[in-house]
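Example S7 (structure tokens).
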């Protein structure tokens, strides 16, 4: 699974990416700082079973901080998008191509209105962020529309000649974009289009279909970045916009807190609503004021910096769950004796055998049964695992 960080230039995409991944993408106050896509690992937050089961875990692939597991998910930060990117303007073609494999988008919007449509700095409130939301959706829709239309007539003819449904033809064409037949069917039903007569669809029908297909197949979170600098009236307008998942965000604040944490200045669980200064006597007045500003204008006002909340919400929209595979269902350990070492992010509905393949191919190939360590019962290959399950896999190896 992969989350795409999208938006126009100079809205804080790379800052968001760095705060969420602790990476070091270049950050600067001018358009197109990011040219090559930055890849990294973000983390969703889930309660670790260690607290509930009163054990001390030994994390391997997913860190545990104060009973919260930070489970990895791949992230992609791409070049900024400008109007008419689908026509190749700016770095549009590269941007869109980089996003092919993203399963969901986190759209970083400058909620303060301090960057124009091209990403150039302007006065706070001078630009309407709603325009940015609409334009990015339009660019994605026209990009996908162009892909579909390229072979539309051929697909329609083959659908009639081979007796295949149009959703099957489109699924074969769009599989490289992570779009499934179920997404296509849902979009067709939503618009009540005639699936038996796709030749009767007009371009306007195909474009409307494309818009719903994009929304169904690649859900989007709107990160209202620079929310601490946004005029109150503008924030209320954005939060009231219907049909969107809006999350007030300050990526700059999260990055500052992460840096302070790494230097031992504060005690802070990423994504939480407060932090503790460990040695206030070592800080300058300027540093104290900066931390005080974050607490008052970001954490107290919005409950967090919003960065990790965006990631958590994107994963929820993708219907993903976290499962903990172990070798010993009694001690909850792997073969090295580590307690609850790994946390795997899998689609809801994943079976025990599919989980086995995810852990290791040999476990899947030689799968015998699995054991639900919480319920202390044997489950079969087709048993769907649940969020938070601890599963021991028994294989003939």
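Recovered sequence:
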């Amino acid at each position: 699974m992969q989350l795409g960080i999208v938006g126009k230039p100079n809205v804080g995409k790379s800052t968001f990416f760095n705060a969420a991944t602790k990476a070091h993408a270049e950050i600067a106050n001018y358009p197109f700082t990011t040219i090559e896509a930055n890849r990294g690992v973000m983390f969703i937050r889930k309660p670790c079973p260690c607290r509930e089961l009163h054990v001390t875990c030994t994390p391997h692939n997913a860190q545990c901080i104060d009973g919260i597991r930070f489970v990895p998910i791949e992230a992609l930060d791409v070049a900024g998008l400008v109007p008419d990117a689908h026509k190749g303007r700016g770095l549009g073609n590269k941007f869109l191509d980089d996003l092919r494999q993203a399963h969901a988008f986190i759209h970083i919007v400058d909620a303060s209105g301090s960057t124009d449509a091209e990403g150039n700095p302007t006065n706070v409130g001078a630009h309407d962020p709603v325009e940015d939301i609409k334009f990015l959706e339009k660019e994605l829709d026209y990009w996908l529309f162009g892909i579909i239309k390229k072979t539309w007539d051929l697909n329609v003819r083959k659908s009639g000649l081979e007796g295949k449904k149009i959703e099957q033809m489109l699924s074969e064409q769009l599989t490289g974009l992570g779009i499934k037949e179920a997404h296509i069917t849902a979009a067709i039903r939503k618009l009540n289009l005639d699936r038996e007569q796709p030749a009767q669809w007009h371009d306007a029908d195909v474009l409307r279909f494309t818009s719903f297909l994009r929304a169904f197949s690649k859900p989007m979170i709107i990160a209202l970045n620079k929310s601490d600098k946004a005029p109150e009236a503008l924030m209320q307008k954005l939060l009231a916009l219907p049909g969107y998942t809006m999350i007030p965000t300050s990526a700059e604040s999260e990055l500052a807190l992460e840096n302070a944490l790494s230097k031992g200045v504060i005690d802070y669980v990423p994504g939480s609503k407060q932090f503790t200064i460990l040695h206030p006597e070592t800080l300058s007045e300027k540093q104290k004021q900066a931390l005080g500003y974050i607490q008052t204008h970001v954490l107290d006002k919005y409950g967090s910096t919003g960065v990790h909340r965006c990631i958590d919400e994107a994963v929820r929209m993708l219907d993903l769950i976290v499962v903990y595979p172990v070798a010993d269902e009694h001690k909850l350990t792997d073969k090295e004796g580590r307690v609850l070492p790994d946390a795997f992010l899998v689609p809801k509905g994943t079976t025990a055998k599919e989980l086995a393949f995810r852990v290791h191919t040999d476990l899947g190939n030689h799968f015998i049964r699995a054991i639900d360590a919480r319920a202390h019962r044997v489950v079969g290959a087709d048993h769907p695992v649940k969020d938070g399950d601890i599963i021991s896999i028994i294989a003939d190896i």
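Notes on this example. Residues 220 and 253 are 22 Å apart (CA to CA).
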